[in-house]
Design brief:
Length: 146
């Protein structure tokens, strides 16, 4: 897969830059994800993650829903749609992790507007989500001076 850097433009579009292995430098040309992602929410954050055969970008669309796009070659991107049963806060931090026990799935973390807690769901390479979103239980840790 080709090395790329993904960024947001001032016009709220997702773009990327390619690495030229021959010159050992990043290309000056800016590439748009094109039809895969047209516009994103003005407060979106981006997250990227890999499954066994695809690179994925997670973002908030113009309506604030989580969406994703995927590529298997680093050049041709396909819009995957929006992630169901998700109500993220606008501008939610996004994170992904690929589990060794399920290399074909990507776990996507976000903050839910319903309870202001961290939630996650698992997105498979086929675009299916496994189960509904799940709340992450957190514990407060106190530090005392003695």
């Amino acid at each position: 897969m080709q090395r790329i850097v993904i960024a947001l433009s001032p016009e709220n579009t997702v773009q990327y830059y390619k690495f030229d292995n021959e010159s050992d430098e990043w290309e000056d040309d800016v590439y748009k994800i094109g039809n895969a992602i047209s516009k994103v929410h003005s407060e979106t954050k981006l997250a990227a993650g890999f499954t066994a055969t695809k690179a994925n970008i997670i973002y908030q669309d113009t309506e604030g829903k989580l969406g994703y796009a995927s590529t298997s070659d680093g050049v041709t991107w396909a819009h995957g749609g929006t992630l169901p049963a998700v109500n993220p806060v606008p501008g939610t931090p996004l994170a992904t992790i690929n589990l060794q026990s399920a290399p074909e799935a990507l776990r996507v973390y976000y903050i839910s507007a319903s309870d202001a807690s961290a939630h996650y769901l698992e997105l498979s390479e086929s675009g299916n989500t496994t189960g509904e979103y799940k709340q992450i239980t957190t514990r407060a840790i106190g530090i005392a001076n003695t």
